[in-house]
Amino acid sequence: MASDTNTKNQQAAHEGEPEVFSDADLAALMARLKQDPAAARAYALVQKRGFEVLRKLARETVEKLAAMEPPKKAIDAGTDWRRFSGLARERETVARERRELAQDLVIGALVNLDNPGWNPLDPSTSKDSASSTLLALLNPRLTAP
After folding, report:
1. Which domain, by its residues, includes 114?
2. Is residue 136 part of a domain?
3. I want to staple 136 with a disulfide (CB 3.0 to 4.6 A). Which of 47, 54, 113, 143 is the partner?
4. For the whole model, what pTM was predicted?
5. Residue 62 lies in a domain
6. What is the domain count for the chain?
7. What b-and-e string marks burial along 64-76, b requiring 16 or more CB atoms within 10 Å of the CB?
């Protein structure tokens, strides 16, 4: 099996694709990180960069979701303050829900990266987040031990 993975890694390197790691390879990497401070620091830097990329993707998704919404009714100086307060709360709620949806979509895409049958509108098509190796590398606390 290891030679099969190595062959895939060599093929991927030649084709410009990311390497294919087995679960055993990733488990060995995580064990080494616990024992090697230099490797752990390098991993922390990669993990930080991964989080930055995920945040950027979530922000971009929020912007795209906001652009898809119908225009909001304008609030002007003549708006009653009680109505203004209600509209402000409503907009805050919509913005929070939009951010949560964007985060769910980005994490769902990460979890289902190798799941061509995933449909974000159908939760039954999603893989379990505990089985996501990539998610485990970004944040081991989010997945099962």
Report:
1. 58-142
2. yes
3. 143
4. 0.63
5. yes
6. 1
7. eeeeeeeeeeeee
